[in-house]
Amino acid sequence: MTLLPPVFDPSENDLLDGLNPQQKEAVTYRGPALLIVAGAGSGKTRVLTHRIAGLIASREAWPSQILAITFTNKAAAEMRERIQHIVGGAADGMWISTFHSACVRILRREADKFGFTTSFTIYDSADSKALIKRIVKSLEADVLGFTVSSVQSRISKLKNELTDVDGFARQANMSDPRDAMFLDIYRQYTQSLRRANAFDFDDLISQTVWMLRAFPDIAAQYQRRFRHVLVDEYQDTNHAQYSLIRELTRPVEPQHVPPDTRMELDERGGIPGASLTVVGDSDQSIYAFRGADIRNISEFERDFSNAKVVLLEQNYRSTQNILSAANAVIRNNFDRVDKKLWSDGGEGAKIVGFTGFSAHDEAQFVADEIHKLRDAGQSYNDMAVFYRTNAQTRALEEIFIRSAVPYRLVGGTKFYERAEIKDLIAYLTALVNPADEMSTRRILNSPKRSIGPATETAIWDFANKYGITFRDAMRRAGELGLGPKVTGAIAQLAKLLDDATAGLDIDSPTGRKTVSQTLKTIVKGTGYLEKLLQTGNPQDEARAENVEELISVAAEFDKNNAGGSVIDFLTDVALVAAADDLIDESGAVVLMTLHTAKGLEYDSVFITGVEEELLPHRIAADEPGGPAEERRLFYVGITRARKRLHLSLAMMRSQFGETAASLPSRYLQEIPEELIEWRVSPGAAGGRGGYEQRSVASARKPLGSEGYGTAGGYGRSSSDAGSAGFSSAVRFRDSDAGRETAPKAKPKQKWINEVTGQMRDNSGMELVAGDRISHVDFGEGTVRAILGSEAKRIAEVDFDSAGRKKLLVKLAPIEKLTN
Ligand SMILES: Nc1ncnc2c1ncn2[C@@H]1O[C@H](COP(=O)(O)OP(=O)(O)OP(=O)(O)O)[C@@H](O)[C@H]1O
Ligand SMILES: [Mg+2]
């Protein structure tokens, strides 16, 4: 018998050290199927990690036989790191990835078996939107009420249910013009993707499932390979993802068993299916809108026979106060199994509640609290700010910049969604996938080279006439019958692309260019950066910085992936999930949506905008199951906090271009009053008439009191839902009450000049301790100290009435007072 190479060999105790009995059972159980269901912070992910490490350490499985699915790439990286920590380099060959990344890996190997090439492009949401837009326009589908986003979400839903074009055709009512039109759109969309050799995000999973089902011999390769499949956050799997797991864990049929196999065979001569472990919490299911199906959890035992179920009940993450609040909120969802989640982490600090007058007021509270926590020794990395919608970030960002809070935005205006980045990515895509005509069309006139829509059409018509690709038609610019200037521009671009493509060839005389070299060739050849820098427009300067940033991203990629190709780079880029922007070392507070926060944990958490219309979101509020799903989202947010939780709201909020009064979220009143300590706006202190302890509920009845209790059956009568919950809870300044309907901000010296779009710049202001300054919002104060230097100069100021604040001198709306 040959021994396996030595791997890290911890005594069993190391792996099980510190785990509670249920956790130990979950780590050591061996059998075909294991389901771990438990509330937030009970160690589900930790158990999964230790289970994998245990399989490797005990030599029950090679790393290559393990497939672990996590919810984000960040979670995958974290899990890999934790496993490496336990078993060392043995973890290298293991597939730990998201559903999407695992499917890309499979498709990159197999796509050529069904009509794609392995250099396929991945369309992100914005790409598919652009394609749908074109189709909707050409079919004039808007006449029938189709919008781009409604089409996009419907297609996505169908794909998540594994309903392809033919499947839809079978279920559609073709005498209904809307169904007929949608079928047309869906078909054209699918054909366009295929022609472009591209998959959209949902395709990655549905096409993999389809491929595994259509090619049993290929499926058998993966079924033989993966002996252990483990899935985190199982409550958020949709039908396509569920089907993928089913296909991968099926037993291998006898005819697909190689004669020389050393694997144990079942009685039929086949190989038993992989062992499957899933962990999840139905209270954290927040992706129903993307087709996630909680039933995947509740029906696990039926679907996977002999499944063992383990329950975990101790929460190791949060203090009891935070946990009690979470339990109190989620208890209002009916149709759930109540869990007895407890913590021995002590009561901990009270939850802090805050009601600001405006979103800026709210943001200022968050910034001030962050500074306080930081002064008390907490690092920025351990703090996170959550919100329901990306639009909320604007106020937070403005205030954070002004108040010198270092922050990182996760998701939202994602780096890779910016026009200039998409342009350069389109250039790279055009190089490796010339069939992707969308990319080539995108870059035709960017940067501007006077190739307008008419010229684009001319190239397109020429390509169709001769049955050649768009790129081929560009190469024959001289035959298009266009003016000399335009002809020259097209020819020049075609040559640039061809030269750059040649540079990717391993056999090219100069050797294969790296990704960053290729990118630089493009940036230089097109004059992309130069043109941005020439305009003098500050926005273009920011764009130029982004271009440079992308070049550094590519350089970093080259460094970490010796020999990595442009395709590898593009795959990476396409898969950068929202949470992946997180780099913890940066020492910055992270800002992210509640959805992105799943699975993560922070010492201090701020949940902002805890208001009706935002949480529950107005779209969800009227949908069946919507308010319950939004409550789960709130539950997810609360349970991210280890030690401190802040819940805040604003009385007035601008949304959709209008400023309107907002109401406290119905979920706030579900938290027992004694767990929350409410604060009032500090800006109102001194000289402003003070506060009156007055409840919002008595001024305006929260929505929760009208009908929701009865309609939703959440067990609260309409009488106790309103005033009682809020009477001492949510307060606002009486002096502001008159401004509710017509909020008029006092004339402000804006930190961004609206006319020029130029940022305020106080770089030249010489400030020293003792100087008196005046601030637009905080009034007058005395500079206490100056920290940092140049652009990062921070003034610590004791304001006469607003207390101590830190301000970024360069951008803060301040003036130096001469005395
Ligand atoms: N037995 C234990 N002893 C000490 N700490 C533990 C134990 N089990 C888990 N933890 C810690 O508790 C925290 C929560 O664990 P983990 O993230 O695995 O929970 P989870 O159930 O996956 O939560 P979520 O539902 O939010 O994903 C982590 O910091 C983890 O290291
Ligand atoms: Mg987890």
Question: Can you describe this structure?
Answer:
This protein has about 800 residues and is an alpha/beta fold. It has 5 domains: about 10-115 and about 205-260 and about 270-315, Rossmann fold, CATH 3.40.50.300; about 120-195, Arc Repressor Mutant, subunit A (Orthogonal Bundle), CATH 1.10.10; about 320-410 and about 585-685, Rossmann fold (3-Layer(aba) Sandwich), CATH 3.40.50.300; about 415-575, PCRA, domain 4, CATH 1.10.486.10; about 770-815. It contains 33 helices and 22 strands. The chain has a 7-stranded parallel sheet with strand order 11-12-10-13-14-9-17. Strands 3-2-6-7-1-8 form a 6-stranded parallel sheet. It has a 5-stranded antiparallel sheet with strand order 21-20-19-18-22, with no helix packed on it. Strand 6, helix 12 and strand 7 form a beta-alpha-beta unit. It is globular and about 80 Å long. The model is unreliable at about 1-10, about 575-585 and about 685-760 (pLDDT under 50). The structure holds adenosine-5'-triphosphate (ATP) and magnesium ion. The site of magnesium ion has 4 residues, from helix 3.
Element layout with pairings:
Layout: H1 12-16, H2 21-28, E1 33-38, H3 44-57, E2 66-70, H4 73-87, E3 95-98, H5 99-110, E4 121-123, H6 125-138, H7 148-160, H8 165-171, H9 177-195, E5 198-200, H10 201-214, H11 216-225, E6 228-231, H12 239-248, E7 275-280, H13 295-298, H14 300-303, E8 308-312, H15 320-330, E9 351-356, H16 359-375, E10 383-387, H17 393-402, E11 407-409, H18 419-432, H19 437-443, H20 453-466, H21 470-475, H22 484-503, H23 515-526, H24 528-534, H25 538-560, H26 566-575, E12 589-593, E13 602-607, H27 618-621, H28 626-638, E14 641-650, E15 652-655, E16 658-661, E17 676-679, H29 696-699, H30 708-712, H31 718-721, H32 723-726, H33 734-737, E18 772-775, E19 779-787, E20 794-799, E21 803-808, E22 814-816
Parallel strand pairs: 1-7, 1-8, 2-3, 2-6, 4-5, 6-7, 9-14, 9-17, 10-12, 10-13, 11-12, 13-14
Antiparallel strand pairs: 15-16, 18-19, 18-22, 19-20, 20-21
Helix pairs in contact: 2-3, 3-4, 5-10, 6-7, 6-9, 10-11, 10-12, 15-28, 16-17, 18-19, 18-22, 22-23, 23-25, 24-25
Bound molecules: adenosine-5'-triphosphate (ATP) and magnesium ion (MG).
Adenosine-5'-triphosphate binds near residues 38, 42, 43, 284 and 317.
